[in-house]
Amino acid sequence: MTNQKQKSMSIFKNLQTTDYEDHIDEKGKFKYLSWAWAWTYVKQKYPDANFIKHTFENELPYIKDDEGYAFVKVTVTIEELSHT
């Protein structure tokens, strides 16, 4: 396993083992952790983490498809590893 992949797995495991149960919300049959709480937990464990909110052709931070579903694009960087 490469060093970058090991670091990525270490970050994932660290975040995965955190207890988020007090902040889980439900919408319909789905459970989720809001972006605000997710980012709070990330910053607690990785204070230097940052994110970039991308904009689209319409200069908005989201885009809708023909069916009305909205999509966002965010790049999160933790310990020099970025995921979009």
The percentage of residues in β strands lies in 25-35%
Q: Which class do the helix and strand fractions yield?
A: alpha+beta
Average pLDDT, all residues: 92
Shape: globular
The assembly state of the depicted protein chains is: single chain
What is the overall number of helices? 2
Radius of gyration: 15 Å
The side-by-side strand order for the widest beta sheet comes to: 3-6-7
SSE order, one letter for each helix or strand: HEEHEEEEE
Helix content: 25-40%
Largest sheet: 3 strands, antiparallel
Determine the N-to-C terminus distance: 22 Å
Low-confidence stretches: none
| Structure summary, number of beta strands | 7
Would you mind describing this structure in some detail?
The model has no long low-confidence stretch (mean pLDDT 92). The two termini are 22 Å apart. This protein is an alpha+beta fold and 84 residues long. It is 30% helix and 31% strand. It has a three-stranded antiparallel beta sheet, with helices on one face. The chain has a two-stranded antiparallel ribbon with strand order 1-2. Strands 4-5 form a two-stranded antiparallel sheet. It has two helices and seven strands; from the N terminus they run αββαβββββ.
